[in-house]
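User: what does the whole thing look like in 3D?
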Amino acid sequence: MDLHRAPPRTVLQLLALATLLALLAALRFGSVSVDTAGLVQALGDLALGQDRPSLATTLLSLRLPRAGTAMAVGGLLALSGALLQALLRNPLADPYVLGVSGGASCAALLAIAVGAGAALTALCAAGGALLALALLFVLAHRTLFARDAVLDAGRDNTILLTGVMIASLCTAVLSLALSLAPDGRLRSMVFWLLGDLGGATSPALAALAVSGWVLLWALAQRDAAALNLMLGGDLQAYTQGVATTQVRRRLIIITAVATGLAVALAGAVGFVGFVAPHLVRRLVGANPRLVLPAATLLGAVLVLLADTIGRSVVAPLQLPVGALMALIGVPVFVWQLQRP
Amino acid sequence: MTTWALTPAGSGAAVAADAASGAARRAAGAAAPLPASLLSCRGVDVRAGTRCLVRGLDLDITPGQRWAVVGPNGAGKSSLLLVLAGARRPDAGAVALGGQTLGHWSVEALAGLRAMVTDRWVDPFATSVRDTVQAARFRLRGAPALAAGAADVAGNCLALLDCAHLAGRDVRQLSRGERQRVAVATALAQDTALVLLDEPISHQDPRHQVQVLQALQARTATTYVAALHDINAAARFATHALLLAGDGSWVAGARDTVLTRERLSPLFSTTITEIDVAGQRVFVSLGDAA
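Assistant: Here's the predicted 3D structure for the full assembly of 630 residues, as C-alpha cells:
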C-alpha cells in the first residue's frame, strides 16, 4: 500500500485555524454566552488598552486566562507525548510514563492536604516535577550519559522502565496522601488529580504558560530533524550525523519541563498527550518536523474544546477536562483505527 | 574455545605486502606518518564481556579497496564494524579515518566521511521509502544547494538497488530483502568515501545478491568494508579480506592470499574445498572437520 497523505502545509494551516476558532469559542461560550460582536468589541478594547466596562469585557477577563492556560496545557502535553513516543520509539508512551507528572502530583496533593492555596500548590507541583526529573537522571544516568554513542536495544528501555518505576512510586505516595487526607480536602485533591482548569484565573500565569509552551515547542523543533533520524535507530542516526546521546538528553529535559509545567498549571489532564500525536501521525506521517507542530496545535484545540464544553454543557457545574476529552476522543480514535 | 589459531601467540598476522607494511613499521617503533590510507587501525582490541574477540588489529585501508570481513558467528564482525564507524570505542588501540583519529571528528563530520548499513533496522512508525532514503542527506541540511538535490540522489540510489518501484511504499510493509536494499540505498545516498556494511546481502535472493554487490562495485571510487557470511560472495566482491576467528586472532591481506581453503577450513571448523566453475573459484563446505 502506498502512503497517500494530505499536503502537510495544508494540515498545519487548518490546525492553526482550528486553534484560533477554538480560542474564540472558548471566549464566547460558557455559563453565559457573549455574541460575536460583543466579543470582538471587547477584544478590541483589550488590545487598545481601553477601559470600557461591559459584560463582554468582564467575561473576557475571566475567560482569556483560562483559555490561554487550557491552550498551553494541551499544547505542552501533546508536545511532550509526541516527543516521548518518538524518543522511546513506542506508540504507547504518554507524558506520564517518565514519572515527572507523578512527582508533580505527589507534591501538589501533599500541599493541598496541608491546606495550601492554588499558587503554592502549583509551585509545589513544579518542584515535585523537577525532583522526579532529577531522580530519573540519577537512576538512568548510564543510558543518559552513555560512554558509547550508540545504545543497544536492551538499554534503550532503561529510561522507560525507570520512569515507570518512578511513576509507580509516586502513585503509592498519592494513595497514601489520599487515604490519610482530611475529608474536607479530599474533593479538591481528587479534582486536581483529574485535571482541573478551574483555578486558572491569573493572567500572569496564563501568559507564563503560553510563553513556556511556545518556547519549549521552538526548542524541540530545533531537534526535530535529528529526532526523525533517531526513529530509525540510534546507530543509523549516529552514522548519519546525529549526536544521539546529546539530542536524547535535551529532548527528555524539554519533555519533562513541558509535562511538569502542564501538570503544575492544570493537574494531571489525561488522554491528550497520548492521542494527539497518534491522530496527527495519520495525517502528516511520522516525521517529527511535522508531527511536533501538528500535535501541539491539535492538543491545544482538544483541551480548549473539552474545557469549553465542560463548563458550558452542565453549567454552572464543571466537568473534568481529561474525562471529557477521553469520552469524545476514544470513539474518534477507535473509529480511526478501524479505517483501512 | 576454538582450536584454530592463526599464529601460536594468538595475535594477528597481516599477509600480503601492502597490509604488512603497517605492522612492520609499528614493530620497528617508527612513528612514521600514516600512509594515504582512508581508514587505519593500530593495535585495536574488541572485547565482548571478558572475551577478547579481536586483539591488536593493525589495518590500513586505502581508497577504492573493498574489504570483506569474514568469520564464524560471534567472531566480532559487527562489533568491529561499530568500532570502525566510531559508534563504539575500541577496547584498546586507535582507529583513524582520513588521517585523524575518530575522536577528532565531530559526529556530523564523521557522517560526511563514512556511512553504515546495519542489519537491524528500526521502523516504529509508517514512513515512506523515499523519506527514509532522503534522511541520509541530514548532514547537508546546512548546505541548501546540496540538500536541494536530495530527491534526485535518493531516486538514483533506489534505482541502483532495484528499489525505484518501492519509493512510495511504507517501509514497514516491505519484505526483509527489500528493506535491506533500501538500507543499502540509504547508505549510498549519504554520499561518503567509505561505506561500512553489516551483512548487506543476508536477506537477498540469488539474483539480488549479485545485483547488490555489483551496484556497490560499480562505484569504484567508494571504499567498502563489508561483513559477509557468504564466502563466495566475499570472494567475488572483495579486493581484500580480514578473517576474524573470535579468539583474538586475525588475518588480513589481499583476497587471493587470505580467502583460501587452507585458511577458511580451520576458521569455520569445517572442511571447505575449492572447485572451479566456469573459470571461477567456488568454495564448498563439506561438513565438520575430523
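In plain terms: Chain B has two domains: 1-113+193-199+219-257, 123-191. Residues 1-11, 16-34 of chain B have pLDDT under 50 and may be disordered.
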